[in-house]
Amino acid sequence: MIQVHHLENSRSQRILWLLEELNLAYEIIEYKRDPNTASAPDSLKEIHPLGKAPILTDGDNTIAESGAIIEYLLDQYDEGNRLRPTEGQALLDYRYWLHFAEGSLMPLLVMKLVMTKVPKNPMPFFIKPIAKALTDKVIQKFIQPRLQPQIELIEATLADRTWFAGEGLTAADIQMSFPLQASSTRMDLSSYPNIRKFLSEVEKQPSYQRALAKGGAFTTL
């Protein structure tokens, strides 16, 4: 049976959603984050050397990385390519957004998360304002000027469509869901109605709701 090594409040929630959309049977093996560091437990390293979720096992196969897991599941179980376009502009869009999610958007969001947490860590009181000034400058001068155009591109892309690649839901939408949910907690999306509409459509999907019910309450860090 397929097993998902599922770290709470993480990218692995997307894999549960994909499995539900594919109507596959699977087992969830849950892992809790360290309450102080929010890091994954060392026990995940027993499944994969890097110890990072999501990890999927299917028989003798162990697959890590969200994109690789998605491609594996579609190759093995998506009969009729229901969640992956096979030609034309929809296929090009699918490939772009599938890789954009982790290759372009998530690195900046992770950097922003780290920068906002640094001043909150224990340190001498006189260092805190210096740390905050430095991290704020990194966000303002490096991260935000790179993040903003990406958010604007996404908003423009969704202006005349519900989903990223073609008329229906694809795995690219599932892949894009997490970074956009993370964006909603790390920046003000009130000026981006198309992104907010996309996230609303995501939450309406029965398969998404089933994944939440099985994977537990989900929030981005």
Automatic annotation (TrEMBL):
What are the recorded GO MF terms, alphabetically? glutathione transferase activity; peroxidase activity
Q: What is the lineage of its organism?
A: Bacteria, Pseudomonadati, Pseudomonadota, Gammaproteobacteria, Oceanospirillales
- EC numbers, comma separated: 2.5.1.18
Residues forming the GST N-terminal domain are 1-81
Q: Is Transferase given among the entry's keywords?
A: yes
What is the protein name given in its UniProt record? glutathione transferase
UniProt-listed CDD domains: GST_C_GTT1_like, GST_N_GTT1_like
Organism of this sequence:
Marinomonas aquiplantarum
User: Which class of enzymes does this protein belong to?
Assistant: transferase
Q: Which InterPro entries match?
A: Glutathione-S-Trfase_C_sf, Glutathione_S-Trfase, Glutathione_S-Trfase_N, GST_C, Thioredoxin-like_sf
Superkingdom to which the source organism belongs: Bacteria
Q: Write one Pfam family the protein is assigned to.
A: GST_N
